[in-house]
């Protein structure tokens, strides 16, 4: 049987992808805690779900198998021991204040009629008002949650990342997203579809952070990884060592330093690959861009700073005569800033030269069409409020070879 995971490019025809339909976790967002939960606004859940369903439909119309993270996580709980271990791990990382609360929440989770409801509840979070053990208790603060929600989970790109036939279970930068990686760990360890034969390339317990939005598989040999607010050069070195040792054919990692900024927290918010020789790019990162090359050197790796422009580096390492960088909004400063903020550069490529984008980024989408790209538009007025676009909302599991 062929391997369950096959991702050797950013652009090979997409066959299988993992998404998460936003759920009640979005109704646990509050203005006072948005910053910490990495949100900029509160989406209207019903509309966010409709938009997400449209995203799924566009993918399914192209014959792409759409898997839901919440289904996979449910199916990974194949027996009671695994389920108990999952609940234990979830509770131990949930930052619950007292033993009484922990015990009551454990009972609440165990009593849920189905494993799917259990998974949904862990994503949604627990309000203090749901716990009878807290009735009448006076708190030092008015924080309403016994367990925080995980509102960012619909950005399935980030907590784990598929590379070749393996998966990097990531160490997330912010506490609020760290628990999301529990699901990936259970899926790739216990789900019948994945449990055999999926090499784990990074671990959630590592000391330095790396997130999937920074990881781009440019070719069978070359990866690009953002050095960003979310991903450290140290993590890239660690991942590179494992990847080179895993003998999958990857022999070069480009570390692209995009600075530590909230507005472009991951490489894929400013740079994506959309065809054999075409990329989207946010003009703001192009000046003074630092790129490092990591390769195998004897028993270890070497890291060297590149001198060439990104364009030349891509052409040379991808063995092309030249490449085209398509600037967000055609490069106009104001339009590019607005459309990048609304994920205009965050394209999901579903086949060479064919992408899914938000309809709101009209200037960029026009430029993509002019460059000969086939563009599928989806609405994203609510989804975008979490600061992520089609690439962030999708984790490819299988791409055909190109
Ligand atoms: N791959 C991406 N660009 N993901 C975007 C994630 C957005 C999310 N609110 C965060 O800050 O983590």
Automatic annotation (TrEMBL):
GO terms for biological process: L-arginine deiminase pathway. Its EC number is 3.5.3.6. Keywords: Arginine metabolism, Cytoplasm, Hydrolase. Gene3D superfamilies: Arginine deiminase, L-arginine/glycine Amidinotransferase, Chain A. It is found in: Cytoplasm. Belongs to the arginine deiminase family. This is Arginine deiminase. It comes from Vagococcus allomyrinae.
